[in-house]
Structure formats: structure tokens, C-alpha cells
Amino acid sequence: MHELGHFVMAKHAGMVVEEFGFGFPPTLWSKKMNGTKYSINAIPFGGYVKILGEDGDKRDLTGSFASKSIWSRFLVIVAGVVMNFLLAVALLIIVNIFGLRVGVDGAKGVIAKDLRVQIIQISAKSPAEFAGIKLLDQIVSFQSNGVVTNIKSSKDVQDFVVNNKGKTVNVEIARGRQTMTKSIEIRANPPVGEGSLGISLATTGVITYPWYEALWRGIYDASILLVNTVMGYYLLFKTLFVSGKLMSDVSGPIGIATLTGSAARLGFNYLAQFVAMISVNLAVLNFIPFPALDGGRAILLLIEKIKCSPINKKIEGRINAVGFSLLIILMFYVTFRDILKFF
Where a domain ends, among 156, 183, 207? Predict the structure, then answer.
């Protein structure tokens, strides 16, 4: 979707789009239509748009990127970011129409369907972690001494735990469409700040909205997600530059693929919400004023506007090459961490 934004705006601005590719070469299939080569490529990660004169040359050719006004070039650059945000809005509108699973603990006047008691946090080295329980698992029931206790609320879990401290019991959990039973110890004396099971719970339910309300809620949810993502990147770079360390929650392509698979197994709503989050993340990441990113290119246009003349192509090329190299190094580092974390 990001590259589609560049493509649509470039066409609208009268630029010659030489190629619009899905994935990265080698090319599996291609066809030229209306002066643009459309291709499907073997490496299925993202895509690319090749615009005539995008690297700053061919300024004298009508239809080249470099021949257009600074404002037209700026719109083409930011169109990818805007498209990412609009994709998130569209997905969240759909999710709000078909049902959004949210926490309903203490909520007043909320009518929710399919109430579940779900695990939203697991402490390290806790009984829950040792039992193989995962985030968003639903607690269905407990069994102790042949007696089954069905769980309808977080309080049901708390009451059961209080009455069975020091015992090892069976807990039935639902994970996506799977139901399984785990053996878990209820600690009599848990560490300070942790519960007997080492989990935090939330009662969740599915809330749906009529389409006319879902429209503005989708825009609102995407905007909140955008603000939180910006704050997240601020903390990321603050930690990186102050302490020289990368936050442990950062994931690369492997981590994203693994998490996408997990979200898909939980259902369409989870997957749609996750894709919306990724799309907003890509929008914010691409607009960071760093060489080789859209934000860096926008800064170069601003410099061109201030100095009233184009930036030297060799200097611009070197800046983008350095930025691209640093991004590749960071990607390999994050991918290596993903391999250690997930495999």
C-alpha cells in the first residue's frame, strides 16, 4: 500500500512511472501498459516504484520526477505515508463493524458479546510461563480434586486461587480455536508484585458498532495508534542514543512474520488490528527524517527550497547511500535478535 501511494500520486502529478513492482527481483512476471511496467517478483517483501528522474537527473525531461515542482515531489514522497495511515483507518473501520474485542472490566453502559477471561501479562519464571500458557489465552475452567470450576469473570479466577494455594491443579484454556489442559502450580508465597499464578487478567468482550459510527471510530482509533507509535519511536531513539542499546521489544521481518501468524490464528479481528498497527508503524518509520527514508527525502526538498537550487546529485547520492547502509546493518542486527528470540 505504501508504494501504491507513491504510484498513484506520481501518476496524478504527470510523472512517468517506469515500473511498479510487487516484491523484489528476480522478476517472475511483467507486462507493460500505458508506459509503465508492472511486475511480480520472487522476493515477497514489499514492493517498489521506479519514477523517471527520481535520483535527481533528467531534470530537463518532461514527466521526470526532477522536472516537477518541489510541492509536487513532496506530495509524491508523503503519499506512501498517507496511504499507510488510510489502510489502518480502513482496517479499523471494518474491525469496528464486525466486532472489536476490548477490555470490559469496570465499563459502564457497554453491551459486549462473547465475554472471555483472558491473560494479558505473564511474569517471567512464573507457574504460568512454566505451564506453557501464552498471552491472550482464555481461561475456561479449573479442575482440582475432580471438581470443575467454570470461569466467567476475573473474580472467579481470584476466588479459586485463594482457595487452592499451594496446590497443583489443571487449567483448561482456549487458544484461538484450540482448547487444551495445562497443569499449573498455585504458589502459596509468590514474589512481591506477582500473583500466585504470575498472570494479569482482563475480562474482554466483542463490541460492534453501526457503520456510520464505525467510520469515525476507525479514524479515531487510527489517530490514537499514530500518536502512541510516535511516542514509541521517540522512546526507542532516546534509549538508543542515551544508553546505546536497542529496546528488547523491537522486531524485524522474522519477528513480524511470527507475530502475524499468531494474530491470524487468533482470528480475523486480531489479524486486522495487527496489520493496522504495522501499517501505522511503517508510516511513522518512513517519515523519520533519516537518509534513504521518505522523511529524509522530504528534508532534502526543504533544503532545496531554502537554497533555491537543487542539491548536488553526488552529495545527495552519498547521503542516501550512507543512510541505506545503516538501515541494512540495523535490519540484519534486528533479524539476528529475532532468530535468537523466536527460534
Answer: 207
CA atoms within 13 A of residue 279's CA, in its CB half-sphere: 24
Question: Positive or negative CA dihedral for 282, 283, 284, 288?
Answer: positive
The answer to the question of residue 260 being in a domain is: yes
Domain count across the chain: 3
Confidence of residue 182 (pLDDT cuts 50, 70, 90): very high
What residue numbers bound the domain in which 49 lies? 1-68
DSSP state for residue 320 in the 8-state scheme: H
> Which residue out of 3, 19, 129, 194 is catalytically annotated?
3
Whether 340 and 227 map to the same domain: the answer is: yes
Active site (annotated) includes residue 3: yes
Q: Which of 114, 116, 98 is nearest to 208 (CA)?
A: 98
One-letter amino acid of 225: L
- Name the band, by pLDDT with cuts 50, 70 and 90, for residue 110: low
DSSP string covering 66-129, please?
GGS-HHHHHHHHHHHHHHHHHHHHHHHHHHHHH-EEEE-TT-SS---EEEEEEEEEE-TTSHHH
Are 335 and 253 in contact by the 8 Å Cβ rule? The answer is yes
Distance of alpha carbon 237 from alpha carbon 117, whole angstroms: 36
Mean pLDDT, rounded, for 118-137: 89
Q: Return the amino acid letter for 318.
A: R
Q: Are residues 264 and 283 in the same domain?
A: yes
